[in-house]
C-alpha cells in the first residue's frame, strides 16, 4: 500500500501570493472612532471570482491500510508546514505529534496518551511559532505544551479561566493568546429555548505560571438550548481568533467584522465588510431541512421521524453567521464562507490583508480542511470518500480570477 506521494518538494517553497494586489472591485475606507480605526471594504466579496486554488498536493501523507502505524491517522487535529518543508501532524486518535520530511517520509513522533510532561489527554490543534516551534493545547488537562522544531519539549504551562480552551497562538512578545473553543454544561443557566452566547475571556499567558491576564471579554461559541438539552445549531456563530506578530485578530461572526488588538489589549482596528447580506432566508432554512431529513432517512424511519419533529420545533435566527472559520496567515486573514447548514460542494475563503483590504477569494475541494497558510502554501487534512484521513500540503495556484 502506498504510504505517501510527492510531486515536487520544490512546490512547498513557491510564494505564489504572499502580497497580492488589492481587488480592483472595491475600496478600503478608513475612519477614526475614539482611537480605533474602522476599516470598511466597500466592494463585493463572495460574488468575486476565485483568485487562488490548489492543484495536486506537493505532499500527501496517509493510507487506507499500512503495517506502519505512523502513516495511519484517526482524527487529525491540525497540519503544519514548517519553513524547510517538513510537515507536522497532530493525530487525536493517538494523542501524538508526528514529523515528516517534505516528501512525506516519517521522521519522529512526540506525545502519546498520559498526563506527564509532553503527553496529552485530549490533543488539540497545533500552531506554528515564528521559529518553527509547535504550540499544542490540551483541552482536558487545560495546559499548553511547546516543542521546538526538532521535537524538544520546551514548556508546559497551565491554562486558567477558559471553560473549553482553544488553540494557543503566539504573540511576538513571547506570550500566548488562548480563547474559548466550545461550551460546557456549566454554562446552562436557565435561559429560554433558543440561541445563546456566554461571554468568554481571551487570555494572554506567558511562560511564568503567575503571568496570566485578560486581553478582553467576548461572546463565546453560540449554544442552542432545547428542553433539558443543549448543543450546536446549523446557524450558530462561532468564536475565532489568531495572531500575527504583536497583534491578535478576534472574530465572532456577528456581522462581517474582525477586530484587531495589540498584545496589551488595546483595540487598534475593526475590519468590516458591511455590504455582505447575512439574511437567513427561507430558501437557506429549507435547504438545511431537506438535507437533514435526507440524511436521517438513510438511518431509518425512527430517526427520520424524530428529526422531522426536531426540525418542526427548531428556532432559527434572523441572520446567518458571517463566516464559518478564520485562519490568520503571515500577511492575510482567511475567512471561510459559512456552509448554510448543508454539506458544501467547495470550501470558499475570503482573503483580506491585516489592515482590511480585500485581496480576493480562494476555492478548495470540500474534502480539504485548511489548517495553516503562509509562504504561498496551505496545509491541512483531506478526507476521502471512505473516510480515510490524509495530511496534505499544497502550493497556492493563482487562477487570474
TrEMBL record:
<protein>
    <recommendedName>
        <fullName>6-bladed beta-propeller</fullName>
    </recommendedName>
</protein>
<dbReference type="InterPro" id="IPR011042">
    <property type="entry name" value="6-blade_b-propeller_TolB-like"/>
</dbReference>
